[in-house]
Amino acid sequence: MKRFNILLGLVMVLSLYSCDFLKEDPKTFMTPDMYYETADQMQDAVNGLYPPVFAAYTDGLVAPNHTTFIMLETITGYHKRTHPFDSGILGYNLPLTDANALLDNNWNEMYTAIGRANSVIKGITESTAEVDESEKSKFLGEAHFIRAYCYFFLVQLYGPVPMPLVPSAGKSDIVTELTGISGVYEQILADLTEAETLMDGLAWHTGDGHISKGAVKSLLAKVYLTMAGYPLQDSSKYEMAYAKAKEVYQSGTYSLYSSPTDIADSGNRNKKEAIFTSQYKRESQWSSPMHGMFLPYYTGSSNEEFANHQAFGGALVPSSTFINTYEDGDKRAEEQQYFYNSYDGINFPQPFVFKYFDEAALADNISDVPMPLLRYSDILLVMAEAKCAGGTTTDPDAIQAYYDVRSRYFPMAMPSSISFNDVYLERTWELCFEDQAWFDMLRTRKTMNANGNVVDMIGYTPFEHPGVAFTEECLLFPYPVAEKRLNGNLSGITVAQRLAL
User: Fold this and answer.
1) What H or E segment, with its residue span, contains residue 179?
2) Which of 67, 140, 303, 309 sits most deeply, having the most CB atoms within 10 A of its CB?
3) Cis, peptide link before residue 95, omega less than 30° from 0
4) What share of the chain has pLDDT > 70, as a percent?
5) pLDDT at position 21, please?
6) pLDDT at residue 175, as a whole number
7) Which among 425, 429, 400, 427 is positioned nearest to 415, based on CA atoms?
């Protein structure tokens, strides 16, 4: 029954969130037609869309820090782990199996958000309540964005998926047939262009963590760039990705961090580069996992001299090989920037991730460090890559976008041209530990080798997956075994067949 309930969309009225996303505000059960009678009710419903999206990445089910966030980084082969782990679950032994509990988790959470978005869209659209039209437009824009974001996540990882677009009233109308990859992307674009229209007169950036016009345009740019790559290879989308990213660039709304450590700075939360991030508080029930997952954890030390509550540290560790791919002089590779080898007089036997380090959380491991889902530097690099279109470009705006990201941490002259390889490597270095690399690998079929060069992904054995080369079977996650038992359409279809749908 749990999976059927996920798609009903009615669960949203049982677990609603106030406008700060975090303070739980349960209501008595109300049917959807009763619920959308005031702006506050609509806001509560919209706030309920966000938590399952965040949970899809960071909720663990099977062991300490076995989460989708960690899996999407370890599967690239760039990084490793010092905490004990199941290598099959986290993607060291490829391909993944359908019994992997993390697949169940991210699949269910994303469909929970989709079910809620379907209910919100229907409820607000059909509501006759006297609510300011700009407020209704904002609420609907957020719902369309969340639905698009979830389907974008699912189609990249799983390919064809069931695509419910209206609330389900029961088992009899649960959507089970698969929508092909191109059909899912058509719906993603429909949702995002609708959200763009709804939010046209609203702010580029909200500053409070809610979806804004800037987030919609940023996601559109990423979707277009992905459609230009594999498996669709629609080259017409390159220029569309460039144009949409350039709108964000020319808006003047966002700015780049001045230091690599600014990502974890509480003062930057929902500001500057932050376009769409997870939302946490310094409260035990709403604490961010980002700080604790990356704390030092290594054999021979309880780490109690460094920080308390370290049972969950060592979830993801940068390999020295990865760090050595940064060019000499790149500030991000310096001590206590993206990585660190010591802290407060304690030397570690290997480097650890400093990118999400939260000094205020050392005493109790309660942190508000966000997980970046859309960051301005990402969109600038989308703009640069889209103009390269797999080759090179001399377009001054594309070069400027690349230069703005690259030069702030690496002293360099303005180049006269840039190539796809230049941008790809910069994305790999700049966006490490942000769950971007695997998606970049899927859409380009490229990866970075131990020498810091761009190489073909298929057939390559990554430096942290010894003896396990990437194959076509790795390009899509298997459908979760529990879902296959419920839906026969998910069984008996190969990765090659799914990629062709």
Assistant:
1) strand 178-179
2) 67
3) yes
4) 89
5) 56
6) 80
7) 400
Residues 6+ apart with CB under 8 A from 491: 479, 484
Longest dimension (CA), the chain: 65
H runs (alpha helix) in 159-236: 181-198, 213-228
- Name residue 458's amino acid: I
- E-state strands within 403-445: 418-419
d(CA 37, CA 48) in angstroms, rounded, equals 17
Kindly state the helix (H) or strand (E) to which residue 318 belongs, with its residue range: strand 317-318
More confident residue, 4 or 309: 309
Q: What's 202's DSSP letter? A: S
- Tell me if 361 sits within 8 A of 367, measured CB to CB: yes
d(CA 120, CA 233): 33
Mean per-residue pLDDT for 135-139? 94
Give the separation between CA 468 and CA 464, rounded to whole angstroms. Answer: 9
CA 38 to chain centre: 32
DSSP 24: B
3-state secondary structure 461-487: CCCCCCCCCCCHHHHCCCCCHHHHHHC
Cα separation values, 395 from 279, 399, 401, Å: 37, 6, 10
Q: Report whether pLDDT(284) > 70.
A: yes
Q: Is-above-0.85 flag for pTM? A: yes
Is the Cβ–Cβ distance between 105 and 12 less than 8 Å? no
Band the pLDDT of 2: cuts 50, 70, 90: very low
Q: Do the strands 274-277 and 346-353 form a parallel or antiparallel pair, or are they unpaired?
A: unpaired
Give the number of other Cβ atoms within 10 Å of residue 307's Cβ. Answer: 21
Q: Would you say 399 and 393 are in contact if contact means Cβ atoms under 8 Å apart?
A: yes
* Distance spanning both ends of the chain, measured CA to CA: 29
208-222: average pLDDT: 96
Distances (CA, A) of 87 to 66, 427, 436, 479: 10, 26, 21, 19
| Token pair recorded at residue 109 | 């959470």
List CB contacts of 246: < 8 A, sequence separation 6 or more: 383, 397
Q: How far apart are CA 457 and CA 77, in angstroms?
A: 11
Tell me the C-alpha distance between 333 and 339, whole Å: 6
Q: What are phi and psi of 373, to 5 degrees?
A: -105, -35
Higher pLDDT, 101 or 422: 422
Close Cβ partners of 252 (under 8 Å, ≥ 6 residues apart): none
Q: Which residue has the tokens 């994303």?
A: 110
Q: What is the 3-state secondary structure (H, E, C) of 70-112?
A: HHHHHCCCCEECCCCCCCCCCCCCCCCCCCCHHHHHHHHHHHH
Which of 382, 420, 374, 428 shows the shortest CA–CA distance to 73?
Answer: 428
Encoded amino acid at 425, one letter: L
Interval 153-178 mean pLDDT:
89
Strand stretches in 346-415, DSSP E = 346-353, 372-375, 392-393
Strand partners, 455: 447
Check whether the bond before 478 is cis (ω within 30° of 0).
no
